[in-house]
Fold:
Amino acid sequence: MRSSYGLRLATRFLMALLLVSLQGGQAWMAVSVGSLLSRAAGLSLHTKSALQCRCGNSGGSWTQGLRRAALPLWTSSSCLFQSTATAAQETVGSSSNKKNSFLAPPNREGVTKILADDPEFVKPDPDLRKYRWIQLANNLQVLLVSTTETTSKDEDEEEEEQSHVEAAAVHVQAGHFDDTIPGLAHFNEHMLFLGTEKYPEENAYETFLSKYGGFSNAYTDMEDTNYYFSLATTAKKKKKTTTTTTTNGEESCSAADDDDETSEALEGSLDRLAQFFIAPKFETSMVDREINAIDSEWRNARTSDAWRNYQHLKLAGNQEHPFANFGCGNLETLTNHNTTSPRPALLDFWKTYYQTYNLRLAVVGYASLDALQASVERTFGELPFSEGQHRGTPAEPLEDQVFPHEDGLYNRGQKAFGPEQLQKYRQVIPVMETRMLRLYFASPPGDDPVFRESKPHRVISHLLGHESPGTLHSLLNDMGYIQALSSGMVISTRDFALFGLSLSLTPKGMANKDHVLDLSFQWLAMIKQVALDPEKLPLMEEYHGELKQMFVNGFKFRENGDPTDFCSTVAELMFDTGTPPERILIGNNDEESYDPKVTEAFLDRLKPSNCMVIELNSDLAKATEEDNIFPDGWQTEPWYGAQYRVRALSPEQMNSWENPATIDDRLELPGLNQYIPTDFSLRCDKGVATANGDTSKPSESERNKPPKMIMDRPGLRLWHKMDKYWRVPKAFIKFSLVTPAPYRSPRTMTLIRIYQRILNDDLKSTVYDASLAGCGYRVSCTPTGIRFSVQGYNEKLLNLLNKLTSRMLSLIDELKEGPEAHPALYDKFEKAKESLLRETKNYRLDAPYEVASYNSRLLLEENVWYLDDYVREMEGEYAEKDPLTMEECGLLAEESLTGRHKVEAFCMGNIDESEAREACQVVEDHFFTQKQSRPLMEAEIPTFRSMQLPTREEAKHIFREDVLVSGNRSVPLVYQEVAYSPSEENHAIEYIIQTGSEIELEYSGIALIELMNHIAYNSAYNQLRTKEQLGYIVSTFPRKTSGGGWGFSVVVQSSVATPEILEERVEAWLKQFRAEMEQKEASEIALEAAAVVSQLKERDTKLSQEVNTYWGEISNTETYSDRMKEPFFDRMDRVADELVLQDETKKLSATTLNGSDRLTQEGLKQRLLDFIDHYIAADSPSRRAMSARVYNQKAKELFEANVGKPGILSSFPDIRHTKQYLGSSPLAPYWRVEKSEG
Structure:
């Protein structure tokens, strides 16, 4: 299956542009809509597959730009906290050190050359993978990564099949900068998925991957295109017998691991991907059809502020530079207004750029390096030989040019952002309620060798974005002007970059935007004064040194992440000629030194005359024209429709910013970081001695040991596992306080979210250094209570926990004392309320398919508050009569944290039992010693029930007629809404068919849902999206509702079909899908089942993932009674075992882990057909289904015509009324169901 459009969209430029908004309090989305939707949307079984299934993809998307801005290879989870400085902008392999430069000559020897082998690679301590960089005879360079040696197996450990993730990616140095027709590179990427000469079926690639639990995707960037896939394969450690002759002539046999075969899945996938670059079909009929998918993708993005702002930035640049290109393309551009076919241009583009010298391949596989190399030679070795210079070769630098690669690649003399484009103040009206200032400075490209040698932007960005007391962030935050601030490279290409300072403002801040800009340039002037003062050189070197040390620490203990992300990222990095192959994982980040002259040259770029200011302000929609200030008035960007206006910055204004008369005396540079850890000892090694002294290779048996409960008292359970497998000096400490107080009403939930935001705002400056150094915290509010955690290097983690919990408590006291006692805190209270209100209202403007998913939850869950309920607590008539107060907020937080609750706690990682108990004691001392604190009684535990949709017969009783006949539709219940944005062009539906409660389904039913969805996803995508071209977003997924309900959902978003038509087409596809299942051989379904088993048993790839896996099982039990509170840590294995079929070649028990009879292939097929006939088929008397519709504004008349019709709900009161007629599902979870006898 192809991964999510939304997930792919969230990388690169979008990550950079959304940095501020993510830091500025998007927690509501995570703890309100986001977390509640995930509870309702069936994302519980398998995170990866669920996320991949959230929405469909075309085989790729075009990304918005920031080259190499995705989290770098060396990034640990703690680095997410470094994003306000520079850590998230840095990339592994960024090296320009000339002594390390590398450029492999063309391989004309006719055989594969090894450019670097495993012993030469510089790797993190935990990385036991094997690496090899080769150059095939056809000149293609490949990085091979073997994962077979990452664990050791105890002698007495039973041999067990294990699931392994294998992946590959191809990176092409060609993107939309190379378009001869707008959108051509993006369109070429789409077309490669639709059949090759060797595999002509248009879905052959996806079908093959699906058999092995895999997915694929691609993205088109400014200068690059990237194709990648992932597989979940199952394998045993294979043994080969070696016979040797001893000195006395006797023969002896020994067994050794035999990994000299690549899996059928990996080699088959490589072969299919290789054909993209050997002989794609580009069939005329598919070309004509796929243009519609491009057009739909473009239309989906027209109401996205991220896309609108990006294209506006392109418009603001030099239109003679390829940065200005319209990269997505649409029907109009690709067909020249329906007058020509783009096929000839496609062929020319592919022949020009899709050559071996211009490609890089990365492969991660569970096989030896030799086996992987042989597979690559058999597949990608079939590409024809080619040689040439790839894009990274700029023109000769101009005389006295400090940064030689700057402006040297595209149209010498045509800068992307020159004086004509800079020195401007631009205003843009966003779709969502937003207030933001962005300062963009034209900068040297990140690839420039002089620039990369010392990375001057890193220390400058670190200081600009710092959040400790005295910094710009701290001052503006205390003044109530900002929600967040960030700095760093926003755009980076091979001949220019944009360095940015981004400020997310409050309404108060926007009203004082001139003051905000003045302070920003004062802060920049202060940094320049220090950086350019020779006497301050030691201080700058210390700043640089601590950033370097934090990188060294991060790299030394970097864990292996997702293989797919690794392949996708490293394939691009392989083009970096400044990095020798053996240093691809680290670059020169451990060798760089501070260079004051290069820093001075970079700082010279950070001046008003080299700057463009962009104001994003939704309040401008109400603005009146200002004479002579914006001479051209409001204009419209042609591709995405953003409204903007422009004026020149006056010389007086630029001079005052360049040479501020004074610098606010409250501003001061941050001190050095006192939280950088120095103790990296491992608890598991204390007192441990082995025969050979080697404790570095982890044991599989240690990995499989679940956490144990070390404390069980009324109201509190503590789970603990000291890590012996991942061997990194990090720990995770998690607490969940279950209490009914927060979700008692919309008002209480609003207040607790405000408390959470105030806490985060308050802690920013005090824990910022700790977050930079690799320790972080998180506090979230859920319907079941409050969760908080600390994680990172364990040396000072308990101190951070104590600081967090102490402030959680003291903040309550200050809130209770009111605004007169704490006026500054009152400002933070008002700011938190404003940001929560803004984000709550903005949710209405989300993509229609997301709104449909939220709306369906309103009907599917018994106790749920409506979006407008939250808004009414913060603005409007009722909010004015009974406003939210600081005191009320403090009292609710006090009740939630120190009142009646039960606590689940979990400590895992480099933390022993005594330290786990100490962590628990910290929380007990703060929250359990209060007078009102007592354990929550079982009857008080918050519970959430899943509503049962009516069958056709039940609907007749409710509505007094057969609504399927009278309404001419196939589902008895419909909830409809009109998209909030007037510019929204898309309709959407979520078609939900309930498949029973957990107690009804048991393990076997849950497994069948997973299997059915696994097969259905590709079928729906191929039919509804590829063939019928209904829309770019098509997906299916298991829908789990809070309270024990399960279902099957189909999501379609379309600009060409109304919700009624989409429902008809979905129903037609469901009928077709049943026929497809009937026609499939039982052996084919068995293969699909094996793929699902591999997915469900997919191994965690790092400590944080394993922690979250265990924590998920523990927290799953928090709302159940005492008899059901024991976590089933092997739950996923039990679900998977229901799909492991009888096989005479394997030693399998006759029954599954759950006591069910193990099925045959024929038995599984029949069980699946019976499941579809019982729950899914339209004529089944047991079917329970609904549709959540969202109409675009142009179809409002259709919405209004349906209002009041039986079974069509058009408002939240309609839902509340209808739910009175519905039953609910039992609460008991499927993993606690006893197997009945007989």
Residues 998-1027 form the longest helix (30 residues).
